Amino acid sequence: MPSSSHTSLITNNSISDEVQELISYKPHWIIRKGNAIFFWVLLLLLAFTWFIKYPDIVKGSLKLSAINAPKLLIAKTEGKLQKLLVSNEQQVVQGQPLAFMQSTADHRQVLNLQKSIYAIEPLITKDSLEILLSNPFPLFDELGEIQPYYQDFQNTLKETLQILANGFYQQKKQALQKDLSFLSAIQENIEKQKQLTQQDYELQQKEYAANESLARDKVIAPLELNQNKSKVIGKQQSLQQMSAQLINNEIAAQAKKKEIMELQKFIIDQQQKFSSALLTLKSKTEEWIQHYVIEAPEAGKILFTSFLQENQQIAGGQELFYIQPQQSSYYGQMMASQIGLGKIKPGQKVLIRVESYPSNEFGYLTGIVDYISTVPTPRDSFLIKVDLPKGLKTNYDKTVFFRNNLSAQAEVITDNRRLFDRFLGQLHDIMR
Q1: Contacts of 150 (CB under 8 A, 6+ apart)
Q2: pLDDT attached to residue 305
Q3: What whole-number percentage of the chain has pLDDT above 90?
Protein backbone atom coordinates (compact mmCIF):
# COMPACT_ATOMS: atom_id res chain seq x y z
CA MET A 1 0.00 0.00 0.00
CA PRO A 2 2.71 2.61 0.78
CA SER A 3 4.11 2.05 -2.60
CA SER A 4 0.77 2.72 -4.24
CA SER A 5 0.13 5.97 -2.34
CA HIS A 6 3.57 7.26 -3.23
CA THR A 7 2.93 6.77 -6.95
CA SER A 8 -0.33 8.59 -6.69
CA LEU A 9 1.34 11.55 -5.01
CA ILE A 10 3.98 11.81 -7.69
CA THR A 11 1.37 11.73 -10.37
CA ASN A 12 -0.59 14.44 -8.63
CA ASN A 13 2.49 16.58 -8.25
CA SER A 14 3.39 16.06 -11.92
CA ILE A 15 -0.06 17.10 -13.17
CA SER A 16 -0.01 20.12 -10.99
CA ASP A 17 3.27 21.28 -12.50
CA GLU A 18 1.99 20.94 -16.08
CA VAL A 19 -1.14 22.83 -15.29
CA GLN A 20 0.91 25.40 -13.51
CA GLU A 21 3.23 25.72 -16.48
CA LEU A 22 0.29 26.01 -18.88
CA ILE A 23 -1.32 28.63 -16.74
CA SER A 24 1.86 30.60 -16.35
CA TYR A 25 2.71 30.50 -20.16
CA LYS A 26 2.45 33.98 -21.89
CA PRO A 27 1.03 33.77 -25.51
CA HIS A 28 2.58 35.61 -28.49
CA TRP A 29 1.44 39.23 -28.99
CA ILE A 30 -0.29 38.36 -32.26
CA ILE A 31 -2.48 35.90 -30.40
CA ARG A 32 -3.09 38.36 -27.60
CA LYS A 33 -3.98 41.34 -29.94
CA GLY A 34 -5.25 39.46 -32.99
CA ASN A 35 -8.88 40.39 -32.51
CA ALA A 36 -8.06 44.06 -32.15
CA ILE A 37 -5.85 43.98 -35.26
CA PHE A 38 -8.56 42.21 -37.27
CA PHE A 39 -11.08 44.80 -36.11
CA TRP A 40 -8.89 47.75 -37.12
CA VAL A 41 -8.02 46.19 -40.48
CA LEU A 42 -11.70 45.64 -41.16
CA LEU A 43 -12.43 49.22 -40.14
CA LEU A 44 -9.65 50.50 -42.43
CA LEU A 45 -11.03 48.53 -45.37
CA LEU A 46 -14.44 49.98 -44.76
CA ALA A 47 -12.88 53.44 -44.68
CA PHE A 48 -11.20 52.74 -48.01
CA THR A 49 -14.55 51.75 -49.49
CA TRP A 50 -15.79 55.25 -48.62
CA PHE A 51 -12.99 57.06 -50.43
CA ILE A 52 -12.53 54.69 -53.38
CA LYS A 53 -14.96 55.24 -56.23
CA TYR A 54 -15.81 52.79 -58.98
CA PRO A 55 -17.65 54.09 -62.06
CA ASP A 56 -20.55 52.61 -64.00
CA ILE A 57 -19.78 52.76 -67.74
CA VAL A 58 -21.67 52.32 -70.98
CA LYS A 59 -19.51 51.27 -73.91
CA GLY A 60 -19.92 51.99 -77.59
CA SER A 61 -18.05 52.56 -80.83
CA LEU A 62 -17.08 56.08 -81.90
CA LYS A 63 -15.78 57.83 -84.99
CA LEU A 64 -13.87 61.10 -84.82
CA SER A 65 -15.14 63.97 -86.94
CA ALA A 66 -14.12 67.58 -87.32
CA ILE A 67 -15.38 70.98 -88.37
CA ASN A 68 -12.85 72.43 -90.84
CA ALA A 69 -10.83 69.23 -90.73
CA PRO A 70 -7.30 68.89 -92.13
CA LYS A 71 -7.38 68.60 -95.91
CA LEU A 72 -5.63 65.71 -97.64
CA LEU A 73 -3.83 66.49 -100.90
CA ILE A 74 -3.14 63.67 -103.33
CA ALA A 75 -1.35 63.38 -106.66
CA LYS A 76 -3.85 63.55 -109.54
CA THR A 77 -1.44 62.07 -112.05
CA GLU A 78 1.45 59.61 -112.12
CA GLY A 79 4.96 60.89 -112.72
CA LYS A 80 7.99 62.47 -111.12
CA LEU A 81 7.85 65.15 -108.46
CA GLN A 82 9.55 67.81 -110.57
CA LYS A 83 9.69 70.61 -107.97
CA LEU A 84 9.02 70.67 -104.21
CA LEU A 85 8.22 74.23 -103.15
CA VAL A 86 7.57 73.89 -99.39
CA SER A 87 9.04 72.22 -96.32
CA ASN A 88 7.31 70.18 -93.64
CA GLU A 89 5.28 72.20 -91.07
CA GLN A 90 5.62 75.39 -93.12
CA GLN A 91 2.78 77.90 -92.97
CA VAL A 92 1.10 78.36 -96.36
CA VAL A 93 -1.66 80.56 -97.74
CA GLN A 94 -4.66 79.61 -99.82
CA GLY A 95 -3.81 78.94 -103.46
CA GLN A 96 -0.05 78.74 -102.84
CA PRO A 97 1.72 76.18 -105.09
CA LEU A 98 3.22 73.37 -103.01
CA ALA A 99 4.75 71.10 -105.66
CA PHE A 100 5.02 70.62 -109.43
CA MET A 101 4.42 67.27 -111.11
CA GLN A 102 6.42 66.48 -114.25
CA SER A 103 4.90 67.94 -117.45
CA THR A 104 5.92 69.17 -120.91
CA ALA A 105 4.76 72.68 -120.00
CA ASP A 106 6.55 75.34 -118.01
CA HIS A 107 4.63 75.46 -114.71
CA ARG A 108 5.46 79.13 -114.12
CA GLN A 109 4.14 80.10 -117.54
CA VAL A 110 0.88 78.24 -116.95
CA LEU A 111 0.42 79.91 -113.56
CA ASN A 112 1.12 83.33 -115.10
CA LEU A 113 -1.36 82.52 -117.86
CA GLN A 114 -3.98 81.78 -115.20
CA LYS A 115 -3.31 85.14 -113.53
CA SER A 116 -3.66 86.93 -116.88
CA ILE A 117 -6.97 85.17 -117.53
CA TYR A 118 -8.28 86.19 -114.11
CA ALA A 119 -7.26 89.79 -114.86
CA ILE A 120 -9.14 89.87 -118.20
CA GLU A 121 -12.29 88.09 -117.03
CA PRO A 122 -13.84 91.06 -115.14
CA LEU A 123 -13.26 93.30 -118.21
CA ILE A 124 -15.76 91.23 -120.22
CA THR A 125 -18.61 91.86 -117.78
CA LYS A 126 -17.73 95.57 -117.58
CA ASP A 127 -17.33 95.87 -121.38
CA SER A 128 -13.90 97.43 -120.87
CA LEU A 129 -11.79 95.43 -123.30
CA GLU A 130 -10.16 98.64 -124.55
CA ILE A 131 -7.62 98.16 -121.75
CA LEU A 132 -6.14 95.37 -123.89
CA LEU A 133 -4.96 98.02 -126.35
CA SER A 134 -2.75 99.70 -123.74
CA ASN A 135 -1.98 96.50 -121.76
CA PRO A 136 -1.50 93.70 -124.30
CA PHE A 137 -2.11 90.09 -123.28
CA PRO A 138 1.28 88.46 -122.51
CA LEU A 139 2.79 85.93 -124.90
CA PHE A 140 3.56 82.34 -123.84
CA ASP A 141 5.37 79.67 -125.81
CA GLU A 142 5.90 76.79 -123.33
CA LEU A 143 2.36 75.78 -122.37
CA GLY A 144 2.61 72.14 -123.36
CA GLU A 145 -0.84 70.56 -123.75
CA ILE A 146 -2.50 73.98 -123.43
CA GLN A 147 -0.58 75.60 -126.31
CA PRO A 148 -3.21 74.82 -129.05
CA TYR A 149 -5.98 76.35 -126.96
CA TYR A 150 -3.78 79.37 -126.28
CA GLN A 151 -3.14 79.82 -130.03
CA ASP A 152 -6.89 79.71 -130.74
CA PHE A 153 -7.40 82.31 -128.06
CA GLN A 154 -4.67 84.51 -129.52
CA ASN A 155 -6.32 84.40 -132.96
CA THR A 156 -9.66 85.34 -131.46
CA LEU A 157 -7.96 88.08 -129.45
CA LYS A 158 -6.48 89.64 -132.61
CA GLU A 159 -9.91 89.65 -134.25
CA THR A 160 -11.40 91.18 -131.12
CA LEU A 161 -8.83 93.96 -131.02
CA GLN A 162 -10.12 95.04 -134.45
CA ILE A 163 -13.52 95.88 -132.96
CA LEU A 164 -12.12 97.99 -130.14
CA ALA A 165 -11.53 101.75 -130.26
CA ASN A 166 -9.48 102.86 -133.31
CA GLY A 167 -9.89 99.39 -134.82
CA PHE A 168 -11.13 98.69 -138.34
CA TYR A 169 -14.69 97.89 -137.33
CA GLN A 170 -14.96 100.88 -135.04
CA GLN A 171 -13.71 103.13 -137.84
CA LYS A 172 -16.21 101.56 -140.23
CA LYS A 173 -18.97 102.09 -137.69
CA GLN A 174 -17.98 105.73 -137.30
CA ALA A 175 -17.98 106.19 -141.09
CA LEU A 176 -21.46 104.69 -141.37
CA GLN A 177 -22.72 106.91 -138.59
CA LYS A 178 -21.24 109.94 -140.40
CA ASP A 179 -22.94 108.87 -143.66
CA LEU A 180 -26.16 108.56 -141.74
CA SER A 181 -25.79 112.07 -140.39
CA PHE A 182 -25.18 113.36 -143.95
CA LEU A 183 -28.30 111.60 -145.17
CA SER A 184 -30.22 113.11 -142.30
CA ALA A 185 -29.01 116.60 -143.31
CA ILE A 186 -29.94 115.95 -146.96
CA GLN A 187 -33.33 114.73 -145.84
CA GLU A 188 -33.89 117.89 -143.88
CA ASN A 189 -32.79 120.05 -146.84
CA ILE A 190 -35.12 118.26 -149.28
CA GLU A 191 -38.04 118.61 -146.89
CA LYS A 192 -37.43 122.37 -146.70
CA GLN A 193 -37.23 122.59 -150.50
CA LYS A 194 -40.41 120.60 -150.76
CA GLN A 195 -42.15 122.98 -148.38
CA LEU A 196 -41.08 125.95 -150.54
CA THR A 197 -42.12 124.17 -153.73
CA GLN A 198 -45.44 123.30 -152.12
CA GLN A 199 -46.03 126.96 -151.33
CA ASP A 200 -45.06 127.94 -154.89
CA TYR A 201 -47.38 125.24 -156.24
CA GLU A 202 -50.26 126.58 -154.19
CA LEU A 203 -49.63 130.11 -155.53
CA GLN A 204 -49.54 128.77 -159.08
CA GLN A 205 -52.83 126.99 -158.51
CA LYS A 206 -54.43 130.23 -157.29
CA GLU A 207 -53.04 132.14 -160.27
CA TYR A 208 -54.30 129.42 -162.66
CA ALA A 209 -57.76 129.54 -161.07
CA ALA A 210 -57.90 133.32 -161.57
CA ASN A 211 -56.71 133.07 -165.19
CA GLU A 212 -59.20 130.30 -165.84
CA SER A 213 -62.00 132.65 -164.73
CA LEU A 214 -60.64 135.40 -166.96
CA ALA A 215 -60.41 132.99 -169.87
CA ARG A 216 -64.08 132.10 -169.52
CA ASP A 217 -64.89 135.82 -169.61
CA LYS A 218 -62.79 136.14 -172.79
CA VAL A 219 -60.40 138.50 -171.00
CA ILE A 220 -57.26 136.49 -171.76
CA ALA A 221 -56.47 134.17 -174.57
CA PRO A 222 -56.60 130.35 -174.13
CA LEU A 223 -52.89 130.17 -175.00
CA GLU A 224 -51.99 132.22 -171.93
CA LEU A 225 -54.18 129.95 -169.77
CA ASN A 226 -52.36 126.92 -171.14
CA GLN A 227 -49.03 128.47 -170.20
CA ASN A 228 -50.25 128.96 -166.60
CA LYS A 229 -51.49 125.38 -166.54
CA SER A 230 -48.08 124.19 -167.70
CA LYS A 231 -46.43 126.00 -164.79
CA VAL A 232 -48.82 124.30 -162.33
CA ILE A 233 -48.04 120.88 -163.80
CA GLY A 234 -44.28 121.64 -163.59
CA LYS A 235 -44.57 122.52 -159.90
CA GLN A 236 -46.58 119.36 -159.30
CA GLN A 237 -43.88 117.28 -161.00
CA SER A 238 -41.22 118.99 -158.86
CA LEU A 239 -43.17 118.01 -155.71
CA GLN A 240 -43.38 114.38 -156.84
CA GLN A 241 -39.66 114.32 -157.64
CA MET A 242 -38.89 115.73 -154.19
CA SER A 243 -41.15 113.10 -152.60
CA ALA A 244 -39.23 110.43 -154.56
CA GLN A 245 -35.93 111.94 -153.37
CA LEU A 246 -37.15 111.80 -149.78
CA ILE A 247 -38.11 108.16 -150.21
CA ASN A 248 -34.76 107.30 -151.81
CA ASN A 249 -32.95 109.19 -149.07
CA GLU A 250 -34.96 107.31 -146.43
CA ILE A 251 -34.11 104.01 -148.11
CA ALA A 252 -30.41 104.95 -148.09
CA ALA A 253 -30.63 105.92 -144.42
CA GLN A 254 -32.34 102.62 -143.56
CA ALA A 255 -29.62 100.75 -145.46
CA LYS A 256 -26.96 102.56 -143.44
CA LYS A 257 -28.81 101.77 -140.21
CA LYS A 258 -29.08 98.12 -141.22
CA GLU A 259 -25.38 98.04 -142.00
CA ILE A 260 -24.63 99.56 -138.60
CA MET A 261 -26.89 96.99 -136.90
CA GLU A 262 -25.16 94.15 -138.74
CA LEU A 263 -21.81 95.58 -137.77
CA GLN A 264 -22.98 95.94 -134.18
CA LYS A 265 -24.17 92.33 -134.22
CA PHE A 266 -20.82 91.25 -135.58
CA ILE A 267 -19.09 93.15 -132.76
CA ILE A 268 -21.34 91.48 -130.15
CA ASP A 269 -20.79 88.06 -131.74
CA GLN A 270 -17.06 88.66 -131.75
CA GLN A 271 -17.15 89.65 -128.07
CA GLN A 272 -19.08 86.46 -127.28
CA LYS A 273 -16.59 84.47 -129.35
CA PHE A 274 -13.76 86.08 -127.41
CA SER A 275 -15.51 85.32 -124.11
CA SER A 276 -16.03 81.69 -125.16
CA ALA A 277 -12.37 81.34 -126.20
CA LEU A 278 -11.25 82.85 -122.90
CA LEU A 279 -13.48 80.51 -120.86
CA THR A 280 -12.23 77.51 -122.84
CA LEU A 281 -8.63 78.51 -122.21
CA LYS A 282 -9.45 79.10 -118.53
CA SER A 283 -11.06 75.67 -118.22
CA LYS A 284 -8.11 73.91 -119.87
CA THR A 285 -5.64 75.87 -117.76
CA GLU A 286 -7.39 75.02 -114.50
CA GLU A 287 -7.69 71.37 -115.57
CA TRP A 288 -3.94 71.28 -116.28
CA ILE A 289 -3.14 72.93 -112.94
CA GLN A 290 -5.27 70.40 -111.07
CA HIS A 291 -3.21 67.59 -112.60
CA TYR A 292 0.29 69.02 -112.47
CA VAL A 293 0.31 71.64 -109.67
CA ILE A 294 -0.42 70.81 -106.04
CA GLU A 295 -1.98 73.93 -104.46
CA ALA A 296 -3.01 74.70 -100.89
CA PRO A 297 -6.85 74.67 -100.69
CA GLU A 298 -6.73 76.99 -97.66
CA ALA A 299 -4.32 78.65 -95.28
CA GLY A 300 -2.66 76.52 -92.60
CA LYS A 301 0.32 74.35 -91.76
CA ILE A 302 1.63 71.91 -94.36
CA LEU A 303 2.30 68.38 -93.10
CA PHE A 304 4.08 65.76 -95.21
CA THR A 305 2.50 62.31 -95.18
CA SER A 306 5.87 60.73 -96.00
CA PHE A 307 9.41 61.66 -96.96
CA LEU A 308 9.32 63.60 -100.24
CA GLN A 309 12.13 64.75 -102.51
CA GLU A 310 12.45 66.13 -106.02
CA ASN A 311 12.54 63.67 -108.96
CA GLN A 312 10.81 61.09 -106.78
CA GLN A 313 8.39 58.83 -108.67
CA ILE A 314 4.83 59.49 -107.53
CA ALA A 315 1.86 57.20 -108.16
CA GLY A 316 -1.56 58.52 -109.15
CA GLY A 317 -3.71 58.97 -106.05
CA GLN A 318 -0.72 58.89 -103.70
CA GLU A 319 -1.16 60.93 -100.50
CA LEU A 320 1.31 63.82 -100.37
CA PHE A 321 0.32 66.50 -97.87
CA TYR A 322 -2.13 67.47 -95.18
CA ILE A 323 -3.15 71.09 -94.64
CA GLN A 324 -3.77 71.68 -90.94
CA PRO A 325 -6.10 74.71 -90.69
CA GLN A 326 -5.38 77.35 -88.10
CA GLN A 327 -8.70 76.67 -86.39
CA SER A 328 -10.36 73.24 -86.21
CA SER A 329 -12.89 71.85 -83.77
CA TYR A 330 -13.37 68.13 -83.21
CA TYR A 331 -16.20 65.94 -81.97
CA GLY A 332 -17.11 62.27 -81.84
CA GLN A 333 -20.09 60.36 -83.21
CA MET A 334 -20.76 57.55 -80.79
CA MET A 335 -23.07 54.63 -81.50
CA ALA A 336 -24.55 53.15 -78.32
CA SER A 337 -26.83 50.16 -78.00
CA GLN A 338 -30.03 50.25 -75.94
CA ILE A 339 -28.32 48.48 -73.04
CA GLY A 340 -27.69 51.11 -70.37
CA LEU A 341 -28.77 53.95 -72.69
CA GLY A 342 -31.11 55.35 -70.05
CA LYS A 343 -28.13 56.10 -67.80
CA ILE A 344 -26.50 58.39 -70.35
CA LYS A 345 -27.18 62.10 -69.87
CA PRO A 346 -25.69 65.30 -71.38
CA GLY A 347 -22.63 66.53 -69.53
CA GLN A 348 -21.31 63.08 -68.56
CA LYS A 349 -17.64 62.32 -69.06
CA VAL A 350 -16.52 60.06 -71.92
CA LEU A 351 -13.20 58.23 -72.19
CA ILE A 352 -12.15 57.67 -75.82
CA ARG A 353 -9.48 55.17 -76.79
CA VAL A 354 -8.47 55.60 -80.44
CA GLU A 355 -7.75 52.26 -82.06
CA SER A 356 -4.90 53.63 -84.19
CA TYR A 357 -3.18 55.03 -81.08
CA PRO A 358 -2.90 52.37 -78.32
CA SER A 359 -4.06 53.79 -75.00
CA ASN A 360 -1.18 52.19 -73.04
CA GLU A 361 1.23 54.28 -75.13
CA PHE A 362 -0.73 57.40 -76.10
CA GLY A 363 -3.40 57.56 -73.39
CA TYR A 364 -7.05 58.39 -73.99
CA LEU A 365 -9.08 61.41 -75.09
CA THR A 366 -11.59 63.05 -72.80
CA GLY A 367 -15.02 64.04 -74.06
CA ILE A 368 -18.37 65.29 -72.79
CA VAL A 369 -21.79 64.01 -73.87
CA ASP A 370 -23.46 66.85 -75.78
CA TYR A 371 -26.49 65.38 -77.53
CA ILE A 372 -28.39 62.08 -77.53
CA SER A 373 -30.52 61.18 -80.51
CA THR A 374 -34.13 60.28 -79.78
CA VAL A 375 -34.52 58.23 -82.97
CA PRO A 376 -32.64 54.94 -83.39
CA THR A 377 -30.57 54.13 -86.45
CA PRO A 378 -31.48 51.25 -88.80
CA ARG A 379 -29.20 49.04 -86.67
CA ASP A 380 -31.29 49.83 -83.58
CA SER A 381 -28.50 51.94 -82.06
CA PHE A 382 -28.58 55.54 -80.92
CA LEU A 383 -26.29 58.32 -82.07
CA ILE A 384 -24.57 60.37 -79.37
CA LYS A 385 -22.56 63.50 -80.11
CA VAL A 386 -19.48 63.82 -77.92
CA ASP A 387 -17.67 67.16 -77.61
CA LEU A 388 -13.89 67.19 -77.16
CA PRO A 389 -13.11 70.26 -75.00
CA LYS A 390 -9.37 69.46 -75.02
CA GLY A 391 -9.29 68.67 -78.69
CA LEU A 392 -7.13 65.71 -79.69
CA LYS A 393 -4.73 65.97 -76.73
CA THR A 394 -4.70 62.82 -74.56
CA ASN A 395 -4.24 62.49 -70.82
CA TYR A 396 -0.57 61.64 -71.57
CA ASP A 397 -0.25 65.12 -73.12
CA LYS A 398 0.16 63.62 -76.59
CA THR A 399 -1.72 64.83 -79.66
CA VAL A 400 -3.60 62.43 -81.91
CA PHE A 401 -3.24 63.38 -85.57
CA PHE A 402 -6.70 63.63 -87.09
CA ARG A 403 -7.81 61.57 -90.05
CA ASN A 404 -11.37 61.33 -91.25
CA ASN A 405 -13.47 58.66 -89.52
CA LEU A 406 -10.81 57.46 -87.09
CA SER A 407 -12.35 54.56 -85.15
CA ALA A 408 -12.32 54.50 -81.36
CA GLN A 409 -13.91 52.80 -78.37
CA ALA A 410 -15.83 55.08 -76.02
CA GLU A 411 -16.82 54.61 -72.39
CA VAL A 412 -19.45 56.92 -70.90
CA ILE A 413 -19.08 57.28 -67.13
CA THR A 414 -22.71 57.30 -66.06
CA ASP A 415 -22.33 56.99 -62.23
CA ASN A 416 -19.07 57.26 -60.26
CA ARG A 417 -20.24 55.64 -56.96
CA ARG A 418 -18.25 54.77 -53.82
CA LEU A 419 -17.44 51.14 -53.05
CA PHE A 420 -19.14 51.65 -49.68
CA ASP A 421 -22.41 52.55 -51.38
CA ARG A 422 -22.10 49.55 -53.67
CA PHE A 423 -21.41 47.29 -50.66
CA LEU A 424 -24.45 48.61 -48.83
CA GLY A 425 -26.49 48.15 -51.97
CA GLN A 426 -25.43 44.51 -52.21
CA LEU A 427 -26.30 43.95 -48.55
CA HIS A 428 -29.68 45.58 -49.11
CA ASP A 429 -30.34 43.30 -52.07
CA ILE A 430 -29.32 40.23 -50.03
CA MET A 431 -31.57 41.24 -47.15
CA ARG A 432 -34.49 41.80 -49.53
Answers
A1: 113, 140, 143, 281
A2: 83
A3: 15
Residues 139 and 272 in one domain: yes
* 374 and 259 housed in the same domain: no
Distances (CA, A) of 316 to 77, 79, 291: 5, 8, 10
Q: What's the structural domain count of the chain? A: 3
* Final residue before a domain boundary, out of 269, 290, 311: 290
What CATH number corresponds to the domain at position 346?
Answer: 2.40.30.170
Q: pLDDT tens digit string along 10-62?
A: 444 555 666 666 566 566 656 666 667 777 777 777 666 666 666 678 888 99
117 and 23 in a single domain? The answer is no
C-alpha distance from residue 328 to each of 23, 73, 389 (Å): 83, 17, 12
pTM above 0.70, yes or no: no
